[in-house]
Amino acid sequence: MTPLVELRKVSKFFGPVISLKDIDMKVYPGEVHCLLGDNGAGKSTLIKILSGVHKPSEGQVLFEGQPVVFSSPREALNQGIATVFQDLAMLPLMSITRNFFLGREPRVGPLRLYDGNLAARIAREELLKIGISIRDPDQPVGTLSGGERQSVAIARAVYFGAKVLILDEPTSALGVKEAAVVLRYVVQAKARGLGVIFITHNVHHAWAVGDTFTVLNRGRSYGTFKKEETEREKLLQMMSGGEELEVLAVELELIAKRDPAGAAQLERRIAEELQEPN
Ligand SMILES: Nc1ncnc2c1ncn2[C@@H]1O[C@H](COP(=O)(O)OP(=O)(O)OP(=O)(O)O)[C@@H](O)[C@H]1O
Ligand SMILES: [Mg+2]
Q1: Does residue 39 have its Cβ closer than 6 Å to ligand 1?
Q2: Domain named ABC transporter: which ranges (predicted)?
């Protein structure tokens, strides 16, 4: 099967800063591909290359098997690569309907007039399809919760025929219940055959919905792993670069020699912390 999008040896430099180096990545239809990594790992830079914000300094981007160079986010969107940015996803003072269409409103008649009723009906129906029932499509988006806003952005991308849906940290500002709702939409987009790139710091969220995982660390890739080939704890360790945890292990060993009970307690606490959702 041809990947929807593929990166071949992609690097990105900002002056002396190496944001990405020799990244290979493939995303297939009907797949949730999680992009993991600590702060500054290069996750946002990578998806900005896919969404037409940046051009790669080296390497190649392929869309449905063909090399592409996007000169703007609009160009990537027209090809079917929709990106939902955490904060810029919505205009808070505008209505749900207006946000749903954002420049692609349905127009009717020879004068191509905006059809507000039709727009409101489509927005309401499309949101219902992914399980969001809105009281009033004219309601400002700013009155929705963070999770609902993310959901409107996802519904919009699906309605306008996105093939690739990129979500940059969609759950990071959300509580547990709201995150679960957004994760459900991620799974629904996948069920419709989209390739979803899901960026997160949260291994628990990634593990809940991901099929494949690419881990970045300081601009380099540790590789791509299928869920059945890896473990949550391994991903966690790669994300943190492993070093912190190794240092911790050495310290624990030293403590264990002097104070076995204390060491065991500390170990349990760390294990619990690593398990904690969020
Ligand atoms: N426009 C830019 N100019 C210079 N350096 C940049 C630019 N964009 C990103 N960088 C650098 O590239 C590196 C990767 O940044 P990026 O935003 O891709 O990380 P990230 O993985 O998304 O981090 P976070 O989890 O904090 O969002 C960082 O060192 C950052 O300072
Ligand atoms: Mg980022």
Answers
A1: yes
A2: 5-243
- Which residues, at least 6 apart from 10, have a Cβ–Cβ distance to it below 8 Å? 20, 22, 23, 24, 25, 46, 49, 56, 58, 59, 60, 61
Query: How far is 102 from 161, CA to CA, in rounded Å?
Result: 15
pLDDT over 70 (residue 249): no
Q: Token pair of 134, please?
A: 């809105």
What are the strands, taking DSSP E only, across the chain?
5-14, 17-27, 31-37, 58-63, 66-68, 81-84, 107-108, 113-114, 164-168, 195-200, 212-217, 220-226
Report pLDDT digits (tens) over 193-215.
999 999 988 888 899 999 999 99
What the block records as the tokens of 201 is 């710091």
The predicted-structure confidence for 149-196, as pLDDT tens digits, reads as follows 888 888 888 888 899 999 988 887 777 777 888 888 889 889 989 999
CB-side neighbour CA atoms (13 Å) of 252: 16
pLDDT at 190: 92
Best residue among 19, 34, 171 to mutate for probing ligand 1's pocket (most ligand atoms within 8 Å of CB) is 19
